[in-house]
Amino acid sequence: MCSFKASATKPLLVFLTVIFFLCPCSVRGEDSDSSGPKLYFQNQQVDPLKESLSGTLLPSDKASPPSEKSDASSPATSFARTFKRLFSFSAPTDVVEYNYYVVQFIGPVQSSWKKSLAGFGAVFFDYIPQYAFIIKLGTAKVDDVKELEFVRWIGEYAADLKLSRDVYDITPDKLREQEAMLKVRVVAFPGEDMVLLGSKISSAGGTVLSSSSSEWRILINVKISIKNVDGLKDIKGVKWIERASELRTDNNIALGIIEARSEQEKVWPVSRSKLFGEGQIVAICDSGIDTGEVSSIHEDFSDGQGGSRINSNVVFPGSSIIDYSGHGTHVAGTVLGNGMKSGSSPLANSFPSTCYAGAAPKARLYFQTVGPADGGANLPGIPADLFDIFDPAHDAGARIHSNSWGASGPGNYDSLSVSVDQFMWSNKDFLILFAAGNAGKDKDLDGVIDSYCIDSPGTAKNCLTVGASESYRIGSSEGYGSQGWNIFNFYAEPLASDLISNKPYGLAAFSSRGPTIDGRYKPEIVAPGTNILSTRSSNQLGNGWGFFNEDYYWSGGTSMATPLVAGTAAVLREYLIKEEGFTDPSAALVKTSLIHGAGSLVPGQYGTGSTQEVSGAPDNVQGWGRMNLESSINSDDKYETEYHDIEDFAPSDTTYSRVFSFKVENNEKPFKAVLGWTDYPGSVAASGGLVNDLDLRVQQPDGTWVYPDNAVSLSPLTKYLYATAIDGYYKEDVTGLRVTPPSYPCTLEAVGLAFSNPLGFIENVEIVIYKYDGGVGDELFRKSFAYVPSGQYALPVGLTLTEGSVVVAVEKQNSSFGVGYQNLNPTTLGMVKVGGIWQEAAFTPVIGVNFRTQIAATNFDRLNNTVSVTVESPQAGTYKAEITANNIPFGPQPYALVMSGMVGDNPTEGEIELNTDQPGAPMSTFLSKAHSASSAVNVNTVYGTALESVYSDKSSFCVQTVADSVISIRYSVTGLPTVEAKELTLAKLFTNGTNKQFKYANLEDYTDGNWWLTDVLGKFVEPVQALNSTTAYYVVSVLKDNGSYDDNPDLGVIDDPQILGMSSPDTGGTGCTVGMDNEYGPILLMLIAILSLVLGRFSKLNSGEPFITVKFRK
């Protein structure tokens, strides 16, 4: 037996385990080991009628629990004993008029059942999956309630259910630093006596730091010795206890690309105005804004005529009025800066390509300052109760609230998340946005970013959580434009050598990935997040990613992506009011519309090999994709978007059913329907989960049904953890834990461990799974993690098991590494390997093992409150979107539905025209245009090309324009090969018998010699996007008068014969050629920062010359 040194017992550093929950669903018997619904509490599950919990529960007479197994080492027995303790309660020694209970119904909740319980005086609080609630009930009424035929079970809401598993998640060093004191957040039920609660907390050894109350709950921040925390859960009226979060800005790393300015520049038909966010108020809670004094703040926040667009700057206690970090000033400029310091003219609605305006340059601002005086990332001014942020902003008229901050973690649903969901449920016109966080890491060095790292409160269900995509800035003067991801400690390929901002169709490596701990998709949307240029605080300490000038600087992070989405949300809300006729669009409609327009980034910047991370939309990397305002609104008369904001007659129970019809003319673009709703807040005791569950399916014209994209209906993970404290760290090479899965087949989803790496070494730690059959047998699985720092982690496994037990081992060679352990091994499940021989350990390792069992299949999503149905190649005819209610514990449930599809004709193939999407296009007229069929052999012979095949006619045009200007033309093609877009070759054909290949651009970059494809609506086709042979595309090319692609020496005349084809394999195509010498003007950089700014519209020309007429999109 190996020796080890024991230290003083410390409370367990409970690792953050990857756990899913099965939310309520109509399918009976979905769990493979039980036909009845279960209760889910803190990553565990129990069927109170089937587990042997003696007489400590209050079961109905309709079922009797089976006898308890006697095998002490059985995980099921240990699990049952755990829940026996959690649900047990002693007979009261004095008269208690009321208590808090968990009541479970027999199936999907009916409103009549709740009314019956209310008749007994029950007050309903949190919903607990499946079909259960925490209620307040007179003790004398418990027997009456348990006799109700629709009540499956009732039992006390026991003390041990109230204590979060992460409350002791603190390192020994940090604990010493805090003198063994913890800061915790105590959540109590509304209506309890705050004075009495404070007195009892003091009696338990705690000091009340602050407190607040609302109709939803009582919040009390407490400082207490770690040894006394456990006593808080015994205080009557306490619902939940968790560790207080450390909230920080998400600005350490950066963002990327979206699409809106084109739609802002046009005059819209109903309002006869442009869309710049006018009439909208956006609230921002951040470090501060410049000087903080409205009269002297950065000119980009002015109204263009001497006044300010800042309605108020509220400085919270503990905060500095001056923005020393510059974070808040940068964020605000990205949302609604108007570019006054860089050449805009807001009064004339002129935001030219030389200015650095934000997404909503005419919106007004309600700012909330919470930053420190030292310029650091911590935010001391954020109040304990987030309602103190949201309420004043809503009262001030703001309907968009942007937050680029959060607390790091594995995607927990905590009290901050609940507060966000509570406020949005109570104020359904108020859209809150949060940054996903910058916690993306590649611990196993496999070249793919690890999952489960979304910041709280971005884990809330109802907020819009924003991740970061790459921007496109590769110049050495553009922040970190010439740097690779290795500067942020990404060491494995393809990450290490990849530039930070050269692939706008990819994700930023640092951007936090989902899912949340209860299995939901997060983030829901991404936007540009690397090398973003925005406003600079005049008192700033440091220059972020780089100094630009005294008024602007570079920065990055999901902090920068979030304000891009917030500003665009303000513009979208303005559009819905002015053009679609919604007087007060719901937050669900704005959020759903943004998600509906998002474009998938599949396959991402690393292709389809082993390092492909973006697999489909939705997923836990990009959510539904990169934001695109143009696709979120009715920007083209051939493609219609239809909005429904349903509040009246919203679903109240499972009888609800409603059908919405949409007629599709052709299959050139997908039919898409997105359903979203602001859900009732989840329970921290159940780690979140869906409460009101709506379903969407779509019937095609031929009668077949299509179900939600990537629908999630997961079983819960059963967690086995046999240590309850950490007494030290085992430093020898190998230790393990023997476990038996709950049922078969199952998946060993993840292994959690408390780990010590005090010197921060980068060296392999291996998770190894061995078969166990009376002894340690064959190796079933092995995975190396190159860097595991000190802390508690859930490391992914994904091994399917069909029989038997296993030993989960942690193997290492560095003697400074340690795996947490607890003294003694009463279960005999802890093991060590000494001298090559496995044997029983004298301790229990702090290793947790998480299994997920199989469930019955369902086509619906049971976790997310946004679901989508996409038909890539729709049939012509009427599509019917059916909305039904699977479970409505708290109704009625309003919702939003957004649908879109082709309603117009396809473009005429080969017809050459000026590209109407070019921003700031010069006045031009065709002198001639023609197209004629030509073979690859003929073109190769005449012009010296090396084309294997051609896919367009030889297209020729001659255009007259302003001397030295840049123009772009387009024409439609079909029948393209099923390759990535960048594999095609567009060849310029010169009259002297030579050729020159255009360069496929990374974005809509109007630089001489660039080309790209768009769909029939003008949406850019990413270089790595696979083409469809039956789809029509536009070929767009860019030429400069007297540039290297112009075949006419006359000033103001551009001549361009060209042909689209595929180069022979041995010659290669130009592909996506981007060199380090590519430099772009400032506006292009800003347009990249806001994909909204990438496009532009120019007005209809009304001169005597025969200029091309531009038809605006509806």
Task: Characterise the protein shown here.
- It is a single chain.
- With 1114 residues, the chain is mostly beta strands.
- The chain folds into five domains: 48-162, no CATH class; 172-244, Alpha-Beta Plaits, CATH 3.30.70; 261-587, Rossmann fold, CATH 3.40.50.200; 717-853, Jelly Rolls; 913-1078, no CATH class.
- β28 (693-699) and β29 (705-706) form a beta hairpin.
- α7 runs parallel beside α10 and α10 (558-578) packs across α11.
- The chain is globular, with a radius of gyration of 31 Å.
- The termini are far apart.
- The model is unreliable at 1-34, 52-95, 251-261 and 1067-1114 (pLDDT under 50).
Would you give the CATH topology of the largest domain?
Rossmann fold
| Multimeric state | single chain
Shape: globular
The structural class is mainly beta
Strand content: 25-35%
pLDDT averaged residue by residue: 84
Biggest sheet strand line-up: 15-16-14-17-19-20-21
Total tally of structural domains: 5
The CATH homologous superfamily name of the largest domain equals Peptidase S8/S53 domain
Number of helix segments?
A: 14
Main sheet overview: 7 strands, parallel
CATH architecture of the largest domain: 3-Layer(aba) Sandwich
Distance between the termini: 78 Å
Rg from C-alpha positions? 31 Å
| Beta-strand segment tally | 57
Please mark out the parts with pLDDT under 50 across 5 or more consecutive residues, or reply none.
1-34, 52-95, 251-261, 1067-1114
